[in-house]
Amino acid sequence: MAESTDSRNKKVKSILITLPKPETEKSPYFDLAKKYNLKLDFRSFIHVEGVPAKEFRKDKINLADFTAVIFTSRNAADHFFRICEEMRYEVPADMKYFCLSETIALYLQKYIQYRKRKIFYGKQTAADLAEVLKKHAAEKFLYPCSDVAAEETQKFLQENGYDFTPAVIFRTVCSDLSDLAEVFYDVIAFFSPSSIQSLYKNFPGFTQNNTRIAAFGATTHKAVLDRGLILDIPAPTPKSPSMTMALEEYIKQVNK
Fold first, then answer.
1. In sequence order, what are the residues at sequence separation of 6 or more whose Cβ sits closer than 8 angstroms to the Cβ of residue 180?
2. What is the pLDDT of residues 151-203, one digit of tens each?
3. What are the structural domains of the chain?
């Protein structure tokens, strides 16, 4: 397994965050850039494309069969209501919605009258919804997801015997990064295995050299190491539960 060494601990002046640019200036990434006078750019290495209704129909999933929907992301909500519209299916008023977080639950206001609907949410994972799901175990759940659905959520639903049907309604696609061919950063921060895949799809001959790699989450760590890359900045850790905290901890060490 590749590990970081002291010889790599060079000063950090530029960072590429492989996510879309935050919509507000209140992001902790901007605070980090200002505090340490960094060039900090955002560029999503992956993007989402909706599965057309024509293609969705091939899976022979009848939306009217379901009494509840499980949302793991805002993308899932967007594409669920898009598919319903394209298929001219009017979602019944008594449909129950189970969301992994309050943020996703509140996002549903974009599509439904929030106060008049049955909406439940957890803190971050399906396991957080365990108690409320038990009370609604008789529901027939639709699980809108991407072609790289979160295995953790599916596993939880399967192990607990819930009647659920995964519905692939959007895909995670590698973005075109050709304009970054001659651009170099001291640190690149990754947040999913798909982003690592996109890096190599765009630049098959990528060599790490002195570029430090930050990665968030166990599956992303594994994707980095499987490519033979050095993982310089892992997150989360007990000391640094967020990517910004992990980056700052590293910068403090090398920018002395």
1. 43, 202
2. 678 888 899 999 999 999 999 899 999 999 999 999 999 999 999 999 999 99
3. 13-45+175-192+206-230+239-254 (3.40.50.10090), 49-171 (3.40.50.10090)
- The pLDDT confidence band at residue 59, using thresholds 50, 70 and 90, is very high
pLDDT tens track for 95-142? 999 998 888 999 999 998 877 678 998 876 677 788 888 899 999 999
The DSSP string of the chain is --B--GGG-PPP-EEEESSPPPSSTT-HHHHHHHHHT-EEEE--SEEEEEPPHHHHGGG---GGG-SEEEESSHHHHHHHHHHHHHTT----TT-EEEESSHHHHHHGGGTS-GGGSEEEE-SSSGGGGHHHHHHTTTS-EEEEEETT--HHHHHHHHHTT--EEEEEEEEEEE---GGGTT---SEEEE-SHHHHHHHHHH-TT---TT-EEEEESHHHHHHHHHTT--B-EEE--SS--SHHHHHHHHHHHH--
| Of residues 9, 3, 16, 11, the one with CA closest to residue 183 | 16
